[in-house]
Amino acid sequence: MAAGLVLEERNGVRVAHMRFGRGNAMNPEMLDGLAAGLESAGHQPTVLTGEGKIFSAGLDLVSLDALDRDDFEDFMTRFSATMLQVLTAPYPLVAAVNGHAVAGGCVLALACDYRIGVEGDYKIGMNELAHGLSLPAVASEIPRGTLAPQTYRTVVMSGVLMEPDIATQVGILDMLAPDADACLDQACALAREQGKSPAAYAAVKSGVVGPVVGAIKGMRESLDRRFIDIWFSEAASAARARTIEKLKDKG
Length: 251
Prior knowledge:
Layout: E1 4-10, E2 13-19, H1 28-39, E3 46-49, E4 54-56, H2 61-64, H3 69-88, E5 93-97, E6 100-102, H4 104-111, E7 114-118, E8 124-125, H5 137-146, H6 149-158, H7 164-170, E9 175-177, H8 180-194, H9 198-231, H10 234-250
Parallel strand pairs: 2-3, 3-5, 4-6, 5-7, 6-8, 7-9
Antiparallel strand pairs: 1-2
Helix pairs in contact: 1-3, 3-4, 3-9, 4-5, 5-9
């Protein structure tokens, strides 16, 4: 099976399957592949989905743990740019959330225009604080622009990972489908419907996400620096080492 961002055409909708391995965890190669694939869309309605039972597991802790501060800062610049690219894509971008979407994976889903989830046994949410991490600007402001204020506070401050039915009730997911095939079909139908007037859609979307983009640019220097400082702190490094050991035990 092909690896990377695998593109498929479905009746005028481009489906982008994330098949980067490691639970579609975000490392420099994954972000480069995602960014290049989304850039090639032009104004074509697009559906973004994962593989198997995982949409995206968030940051690739194993590979990122090996980076020194300069390289990690470069990664964070790339991460922010890619999330902004998703948020501002000038075409309908629907997430078909086929499974786990955790931390950065949840941010990626929330950066899309709509999110259709699959019913089933998986979790979605932002658990950075539970692991002793703060939020970079894109992870702070993209959820704020999507969720109701009290839901936003709960999602980012509790660190709770939610079942899909609860995630739908609080607005992380817009709707649920009974299985992965139905989820993809519904996501394509929604993207196709939203893409009937490409120029108008792009103009309206630009106005909707503009305040979020402005907030990210205004807060990025301070929030990203704080995130990086905490990432390299003794407490966060120890917590990350414990998480990596658990991941190795599972794999």
